[in-house]
Amino acid sequence: METFRYSHLPSESSTVHIALFTNVSNSAALRSRIVRASQLDGPDGDTEREAINFAFIDARLICSLLHLQTAIYQAILAHTQGSLRTKTVHSEILWALNPTNNITEAIRRYGIADATTSLIAVRISSSDMNNVQQRMSSVVDGTLTPLDQLAQITDWATVKKYHKLNGEPALKEVADDPNQERMIVDEIVTSSVAMKSVMA
C-alpha cells in the first residue's frame, strides 16, 4: 500500500491510501456486500458501510499511477467544493475515470465485478486514520502487490475501446511500437480525466 498526502486540501480529505491486490478470490462476495451495505439502516448499516468505505477499482482499466491519482484528485476537489455527482467521494473516483457522464456505466465498468481478479482499493481520509492496510486486507481476499506492477495488469485493448481510441491517428503512427502506443494512450486517458470536470 502507498499513501499520498495533500497538505493543501482540507484535513478530512488530505490523505489517500492506494493498494493493488492481485489474485482476488472474493470479488462476487465483496460486490454483494457493497450492495447489501447500501441498503442497511441504523447503526448496523453505518458500521458495515464504514468497513467497506473504499473505492474498489478494476485495476485492468488503469493505465498508470498518474491516471489513477488524477481521478482521485478530481474526486477530492469535487468533494471539497460540494459538487459531487455521485453519492460519495469514493464513487466519484469511478465517475472521473469513465469517459462518459453516465454514473451507472462508470460503476459497472470501473467498479468491482464478480469476475474481477485484480483490484485497486482507495481510501480517502484524514491523516490520523490508522490501520488502513489492515482494513483493506480484511475485506479483500487477494495478494497485496506493489503499485509498480500495474502496467503488467492493464488491459490496453479495453482501455482503447472504452475511450474510443482505436481510430486515433496518433496511435496508428506508432502501431509497430507497443511501448510508445501505451505511453500515448496513457497521456490521452489521463488528460481526459483531468479535463472531465471542466467539460461536464
What Rg is obtained from the alpha carbons, in whole angstroms? Answer: 17 Å
Distance, first to last CA = 32 Å
Helix content: 40-55%
Contiguous low-pLDDT stretches (5 residues minimum) are: none
Can you summarize the main beta sheet?
Answer: 5 strands, antiparallel
Strands, total number: 5
Mean pLDDT: 91
Give the helix/strand class: alpha+beta
Quaternary organisation of the protein chains: single chain
Please count the helical segments: 9
Spell out the blueprint of helices and strands.
Layout: E1 2-5, E2 15-22, H1 27-39, H2 42-51, E3 55-58, H3 65-80, H4 89-97, H5 103-110, E4 119-125, H6 132-139, E5 143-145, H7 156-162, H8 169-173, H9 178-199
Antiparallel strand pairs: 1-2, 2-4, 2-5, 3-4
Helix pairs in contact: 1-2, 3-4, 3-9, 4-5
